[in-house]
Amino acid sequence: MGVMTSQHVVGYNGMWAPAGEDPRTQNSPVDELDVIREYLTNYRLTLGLKCEGLSPEQLARRSVPPSTMSLLGLVRHMARVEHNWFHRCLQGHGDVPRLFWTAEDNDVDFNEATGDRAVVEDAFTQWRAQIAAADAWLDGRPDLGAVIRAPWNDNVSVRDVLIHMIEEYARHCGHADLIRECIDGRTGQ
């Protein structure tokens, strides 16, 4: 793989995967929705890449005490975020129960992220299902300027929600970078 230094494994010229093997794209589309979708897809792929090759215990390893953040918790959290914004908000199903959330524990997505293989499989299954459902909805080419009523916000545009999703993934991919480096020293964009 990459070069081992005293503290971490540097990826392929600073990248996570060798040239030609990175699933992320840089097509530089011109259409606004296509640009948004490429960024969103690339960040989703980045989170998945940061989790590859790890055991359930490694995926559930907490970042920095007392934080409950882990790679597995991030996957569960992003399944929850995808579900909340795309299904509950943008598609108007606000009455559907939230994923990985209870009234008693708003952080169940992180707090219950344990190194059990079934918990890991469920998290990735839920996350991938939410991404597929969101992408299917986006295939309908929604009006980015449309204003919707979200259960927690009176008025929000489709564009604002999609940009928020990019921001949410970008922030958490930064967390994933640091958590992965702590687990096995691997770095890379």
TrEMBL record:
Protein name, UniProt field: Putative damage-inducible protein DinB
InterPro entries: DinB/YfiT-like, MST-like
Organism lineage string: Bacteria, Bacillati, Actinomycetota, Actinomycetes, Micromonosporales
Pfam families, alphabetized: MST
Source domain of life: Bacteria
